[in-house]
Structures are given as structure tokens and as C-alpha cells.
């Protein structure tokens, strides 16, 4: 995290230009910057497993995102425990089992949890390239990396929430993102993307492997819709 009152060191204009070129290529491969910027909403339904403390349970997730800042996630764990999180702007609520597990409890999301949700919305995988393509985005370059036998360029983009640098690993051949990683509060988090398919002119990863916070989640997307009807 940047120290308050201490300006961030300047970034070499050549590095910024090289990073911007990579982001532009990735946006073109994704489906085009203008087309992606015109998306108003999307819905995704995924199934898979999540593993916590060595225990693996099946999970089904429906995720709705309405640009710019409305999001709802409905998750079902082990086909019986249901959790719903809904946020709009700076407020949100959660519907989940109470500590006893005997009844469902509705609670407001506190300010500290909203801070992490702001960051999560900002780094939304389908939209992160738009964030990186913003005129004011603070971009950098990491060392090239091999993932799955393929060479990847690494672009870093500074988040406006806590000053966290998010690394985007871009396949040099396909120009698609294979991994997104960051470290927050000393905790490393990463999402790996594969199984890209065309959905309405956009390249969307249909498989996601996420690690961090003592949890591992593997998801396969069954439904992906852009600009669906939203209640």
C-alpha cells in the first residue's frame, strides 16, 4: 500500500507506452474496446467446487453485474446452503444462514467489507481491460512468464482502491488473459482463466481456477449472457 503523503515514483514513459500497446492488443482480442465499453450488464452461471481447510464442497454461483457498480451473487454450497450478496454503489446486503445455521439472516454489509467489494468490482475479469485502458490508468510491466508452456507478457495496473497493483498475464500468441494476480495485506490471490469461447463477439474464459485466503475454487461457466434483461 502506498504511504500517505508520499507520491508514487514516476513510471518511465516507454514502459507505459509498451504496457498500453499490450492492453490495446488484449482489448482487440477480447472483442474490441468500444464494444466492451458499450456493455450494460452481464450474467454468468457457474458450477464447480470450493476447498477450505481441506474440505471440498460443490458450489453453484450465479453472478449478475450491472455497469457501473451494481452486483448480485447467488451462491449455493453443497446443494443446500444458500448465500446472496447484493451491492449497489456504496451500500449492500447479505442473506445467509445465521451463526446457529438454523435460520436465514439478512444483514447490511459494513464499511470495511464494502471496501473489498469496491476492489472486487473494479477488478471484474470481464471489465479489467477497460480499467487498464483508461486514459489515467497507471500501468507498468512485469517480467515475461511461462504459463502452460506459453510465453506471457505481464502488465500491472494500479487499483484506485488501496493502491494495489494487479498483474495481468497476457498470452503473447492469443493476446488473451491467462492469469490475474495481486497481493493485498500480505495475502496473495490469483485467478487463472482457460477454456475461452466466443459469446456474442466476446472471448470469455469458461474455466476459472482461483486461489487465496486459504481457499481454492474451480469453476466452469455454463451460461454467459451479455446485456440480459435485468429485473
Describe the structure.
The chain has 231 residues and is α+β, with helices and mostly antiparallel strands. Helices cover 18% and strands 52% of the residues. The N and C termini lie far apart (38 Å).
For the structure shown, list the relevant keywords:
231 residues, alpha+beta, 13-stranded antiparallel beta sheet, 4 helices, 52% strand, globular
Question: Biggest β-sheet, characterized?
Answer: 13 strands, antiparallel
Considering DSSP H and I runs of 4 or more, what fraction of the residues is helical?
10-25%
Query: Given the structure, what is the number of helices?
Result: 4
Rounded radius of gyration (Å): 18 Å
Show unreliable segments. none
SS-derived structural category: alpha+beta
What is the first-to-last residue Cα distance? 38 Å
Neighbour order of strands in the largest sheet: 6-5-4-3-2-1-13-12-11-10-9-8-7
Strand percentage? over 45%
Secondary-structure element order, N to C: HHEEEEEEHHEEEEEEE
Name the shape in a single word: globular
**What would you call the quaternary organization?**
single chain
Structure at a glance:
18% of the residues lie in helices and 52% in strands. β4 and β5 form a beta hairpin.
Layout of helices and strands:
Elements: H1 13-30, H2 33-37, E1 41-52, E2 55-66, E3 70-77, E4 81-88, E5 91-97, E6 104-108, H3 111-122, H4 128-133, E7 139-147, E8 150-158, E9 165-171, E10 177-184, E11 187-199, E12 202-212, E13 215-226
